Each structure stands twice: as structure tokens, then as C-alpha cells.
Amino acid sequence: xxxxxxxxxxxxxxxxxxxxxxxxxxxxxxxxxxxxxxxxxxxxxxxxxxxxxxxxxxxxxxxxxxxxxxxxxxxxxxxxxxxxxxxxxxxxxxxxxxxxxxxxxxxxxxxxxxxxxxxxxxx
Length: 123
Description:
Blueprint: H1 3-16, E1 23-28, E2 43-46, E3 56-64, H2 74-87, E4 92-98, E5 107-114
Parallel strand pairs: 2-4
Antiparallel strand pairs: 1-3, 3-5, 4-5
């Protein structure tokens, strides 16, 4: 095999490799660091569901395809949303599905909220 072909394969091979990694981007708002916030993890709900009154935004998260992601089904993506919510001590995450015709991954952007305990959103 000619040397050029070997070099081309060496350069292209990493680009074709698939990964179980997903893109996870978490934005933490200043409200997440309030000293009176109790440690908590969120209940994840779909966009369009009723959001209790008195909630404050404490963060935002995007979970999606890196371009080569595998094992990016709905349950795994929502699990990543849940983990991101735990980082900012949210007790509610409102996930909105993002449709990308090029990707086969389930992708979402979610608002991470901290709601008053009286609203009953903590699981």
C-alpha cells in the first residue's frame, strides 16, 4: 500500500471513531450559589408541563450529540440533565427536545429551577 494512503488512513481513522460521549454544557447562574439552598436533585419534566409558581432559574443545560455519539437515547440524555441539575442544586428541570435532522441522538436543552419545597416537586 502506498505511503500516502497509509497517512490518509491514519489521519481519517480518529475522525470515524464513534464515542459514547455526549456534549454536555451546563451554565450555572449566580442564584445557584445562594447559601440557603438545600442540596437537591431535580425531577425532570417535559416542556409544556405546569411549572410551580415561585421557582427561580439556577442554570441551563444542553445535552446532545458530539457528531460521533453513540448510546444517546432518551433515558441516558435525561439522566445527564438530572446530574447537571444536582450540580446546581435544582429541584426541577424542564427539558425541551431539540430536533436535529442530521443526528440520531435524543437531544435536549433544559431549564434548571429551584422551586419552593411547598410546591411538592422534590422526589
